[in-house]
Amino acid sequence: MDAVRVALLREVLAGTEWLGATRRFAGVLRGSVVSHGGGLLLVGAPEYEPWHLAAHLVDEAAWSGTPELAPTLVRHDARPSDPAHLAVGLGRIEAARRGETLLVVSPEGPGAPLLERVHDARRAGATVLALGSADGDLTAMAHETLAVREESELDLDTVQHLVSAAAGENALPAARGRRLRDRLARLADELTAPPPARW
Length: 199
Known about the structure:
The structure is a single chain. With 199 residues, the chain is α/β, with parallel strands linked by helices. It has one domain: Glucose-6-phosphate isomerase like protein, domain 1 (Rossmann fold). It is built from eight helices and five strands. Strands 2-1-3-4-5 form a five-stranded parallel sheet, sandwiched between helices. Helix 6 links the parallel strand 4 and strand 5. Helix 1 packs antiparallel against helix 8, helix 2 packs across helix 7 and helix 7 packs antiparallel against helix 8. The longest helix has 20 residues.
């Protein structure tokens, strides 16, 4: 990762508004999936699938002992021939019900077809969270939003790292701050490490 992103990550560690904002959003995410226990659905826009966030949430689910954080990645172009964890299509959003949490990650807005499905999921009782776009329709539908605007200090990829790390925080208040700082420090180390040697 370049020096600019590393400098921004250090800024987050120093306590900017992003640390608080990502913690609040992650707290709502974690609270929703843990208290409702209905599962976490993760979907992006047609041109933006949040693979990276899905992988980090799976890791956080394992590290934190919170299996509910492991999402089902919902894909726009899923095919039956895809591996099972990649074969979940948009029909899964249509089947969403009370107790389930739907996290929509979109840099520029999800588009009308996805918005319709999100609206239907909310009407059926699913909790809707939005990360990325400040799209008016999605923001109005979402129970909680973390907007990452183009002019923001952090990009969407970095915010996803912060949200996933914060979602896996230990629930014990005394350990929470230290544990998140430790994870973010590890993330900074990973981002600043030289690339692996090519064979």
